[in-house]
Structures are given as C-alpha cells and as structure tokens.
Amino acid sequence: MDHQQMALIHIFSWSAAIILFVIAYVMIKQNKQEKPIKILQMTLRLFYVLVIATGADLFFRFYFGVQSEYFAESIIKLIAGVWVIAAMEMTLAKAKKGKKEFAGWLQLAFALVIALALGFGRLPFGFLP
Ligand code: HEM
C-alpha cells in the first residue's frame, strides 16, 4: 500500500470517528437507551484504533529515524492526534455522567485545530499541502 492510500485511510478513519462521536453525543443528550449508545461507542473505539494505526504507520514511514526538518512538528502532530481521541473519550464520559463537559470540548477543539493545521497545513506527505 502506498502512502497516499494510507493517508486516505487515515483521513477516512478520523472523519468517521468525529461523525460517530457527534452521533453518540447527541444520543446521550437525548437520553436514548443505554444499549445503542454502548454499541456506538464500541464502534467509535474501533475507529480510534484505525486512526492510531494509520497515523503510526505514516509516522514510521516518514519521520521515525529520518533526518527531517519536520520532525518536531510530526511529534506535535502525533501528540495532538492522540489528544483528540482522549478528549472525545473524556467528553462522552462526562456527558454520560451529567458532569461538566466544558474542559472536554475545549481540549477537543484545541487538539483538533492543531492536528488539522499540522496535518493539512504543514506536514509535507499525504494530500495537503
Ligand atoms: C482524530 C485525530 C487525528 C486527526 C484529526 C488527524 C489529522 C490528520 C491530517 C489532516 C493529516 C494530513 C493528511 C494529508 O495531508 O493527506 C494527518 C496526517 C498524519 N497523521 Fe494524523 N490525525 C489524527 C490522529 C493521528 C494520530 C493518533 C497519529 C499518530 C499516532 C497521527 C499521525 C499522522 C502522521 C504521521 C501523518 C502524516 C503527516 C504528513 O502529511 O507528513 N495522526 N493527520
């Protein structure tokens, strides 16, 4: 599999994760049944694995053990990506318990902006820039 295909699966995976996250969140807020929400969350976690696996693949291909002027940014991108996932988990957990979600949303927005800006805006492999 070439790196463009891997980047495409990476993009597909985090897009799917974001969509599933929003659906799960809305269902939690609407007090839907426990079971469908559980199933949705399990599916969401499956996509986390895909996001991390494809992200790790891209990282090992292009940055690990390679002299690159983008090495530092690739590490920040990696951390931001994992952070997005952590923030999604945290936000859903708080919503489920009826606790304050603000910190979760704030982290999600912050980490997502960094991941998108570095992924599409800075780092040279994949599709953009
Ligand atoms: C929901 C979380 C994530 C989002 C929103 C995200 C977003 C992106 C975007 C927009 C790109 C650029 C794709 C392209 O230009 O074609 C990208 C590439 C990449 N991502 Fe992620 N990512 C996430 C999670 C991760 C994780 C967890 C890792 C590491 C384990 C990771 C590592 C990478 C690497 C190494 C690249 C290639 C960078 C390059 O273009 O040179 N990402 N990601």
Automatic annotation (TrEMBL):
Q: Name one Pfam family in it.
A: DUF1516
Output the InterPro entries linked to this UniProt entry: UPF0344 (IPR010899)
Q: For this UniProt entry, what's an example GO CC term?
A: plasma membrane
Can you tell me where the transmembrane regions are?
6-26, 46-64, 70-90, 102-123
User: Is the Cytoplasm keyword given for this protein?
Assistant: no
UniProt keywords, alphabetically: Cell membrane, Membrane, Transmembrane, Transmembrane helix
The listed locations are: Cell membrane
* Keyword Membrane included in the entry's annotation: yes
Regarding the membrane, this protein is recorded as: Multi-pass membrane protein
Q: Where does the source fall among the domains of life?
A: Bacteria
Q: What is stated as this protein's family in its record?
A: Belongs to the UPF0344 family.
Q: Which HAMAP family match?
A: UPF0344
Name under which the protein is recorded: UPF0344 protein AHA02nite_14520
Q: What organism is recorded for this protein? A: Alkalibacillus haloalkaliphilus
Q: What is the organism lineage in this UniProt record?
A: Bacteria, Bacillati, Bacillota, Bacilli, Bacillales
Task: From the UniProt record, report the name of the gene that encodes this protein.
Answer: yisL
